[in-house]
Each structure stands twice: as C-alpha cells, then as structure tokens.
Structure prediction request, 266 residues.
Amino acid sequence: MQLLILDALNLIRRLYAVQELQHQDSKAALAATSAALIHAATRLLRQFQPSHVVAVFDGAPQGFRHHLYPAYKANRKPMPAPLADYLGQLQQDLWGIGIDALLSDTDEADDLIATLARTLSRHGKSSVIVSTDQGFCQLLNPHIQLWDHFKQAAVTQAGAEQKFQLGIHQLVDYWALTGVSGSSIKGVPGIGPKRAHALLARWHNLDNLLTEAQNMPDDELSKEDNAVLTHREQALLARQLVKLVDDIELGFNLSQLRYHSSTKGG
Prediction:
C-alpha cells in the first residue's frame, strides 16, 4: 500500500500564482488553474502509482494554534477572494480524476496530513506527501517521504538530516529555538540556526536543556543556555505550535481512499 497525500492548498496557491501572472482576467486565471491542477495531479498519479490518494484542504479558519497564539500565521497573505470562491470547483476537478478531498472544521490540513502519514507508518505502510512545506520534514522516516512537485525532487529522512545537520527527532526543538518566521512563530531571542545547532549538540533536545541546566551552577552555563532558561515558556509555546498533531480521530477507514483509476477517468 502507498498513500499519495496532496497538500492541496500548498499546490493550488502556487499554481494559481503562476496563472494570475499570465492572465489579467480572474476567470481565465481560475480556468487555467483548473487545467494546471488536473495536469499536476495526473502527473503525480502516474509518477507514484499509488494504491490510495487524497487531497487534504484547510477547512478550519482558526485551529488550536490560533487560540494559543493569536499572531500565528498573521504575516501570511490571505488567499485571493476569487480563488477562495473557486475551491469547490477545484475539489470537483480532483474528484473527476479519482482524488477525494479531506477537510475538517476544527483541524488544520497539516495535522490531518501528519495523522494520515503517521497512522500508515505505524503499520509499516508508505506515504508520499506532496508539499513544499518544510514543516513536514519532522515526519520523515523510511515509510514517509516528501515530494516537491515544483522542483520534481524528493525529500527523504537522510536528505533532510543532511540538509539540517540534525536528526529528524531534533527538528521540532530546533524550530522551537529559532522560531519559524513564515508562521510568525517567535523562538528564543538571540538564538539563530548556528546557536540552536550548538545547543542541540550539547543537550540533544529541549527537554534535557530545561530540566538539567536549571540545576547547574551558573559558571557551567553558556549565554545561550541562560537565554533558553529565561524564555522557557516562549520556547515551549513555539514547540507546541511547530509540532504536528498526528493522532486526530479521522472518522473514516483508510480503505475509502483507495484510488480507482478505471472508474474515475484517470
């Protein structure tokens, strides 16, 4: 079994941005986006030959992260209104080639994707997440890979660990320390990538740092150690915001996502 998971809005918004530049009329841009989406999805189906497939959409305007931290993703440009009004048609386009849509009124798409991929992984089944969002790197393992459709490149566990120079299990703590500017998540003041790497090399993870450093003499702590201890709550909040939820009650059987190319015109 292999599940192909489309991070639908990640894909659609990038396709629309290209078409919006090429077409002054919004109706023409939307029609071109439909065609581009069908072409991209069909190509992905041919590339990966999945047994199961789903397109995951964001249905929740504000999930638990917004309630924890109102500034979450505040710097992101809102979806263009014409595109937002056209999403129903794009979902129908995908349905026409055998790809069902999944969305929740309460959960972010990223968490639904994490739940799907990790659920399969626990049973030794593989999945491919189609997205340019590097936050999914925290999920990577031998059963889960990330595919950048626009670069036509795979991101595997080994590739991500080489890129970040960290273990996959350290990425969430790394982002908790540095923050994630694209989501307006603040990390620990004064801690950038280089210092975060040094902290994780010494302590291995954020929990070790917070529990062990607070009991050590001041002369054994670095300026960076003290910065994290001082901003403990901020670091823990950032980690909660960055970490993907992977145990959502989906309310359906994965068998319902089986891809039937012969009956959907794919």
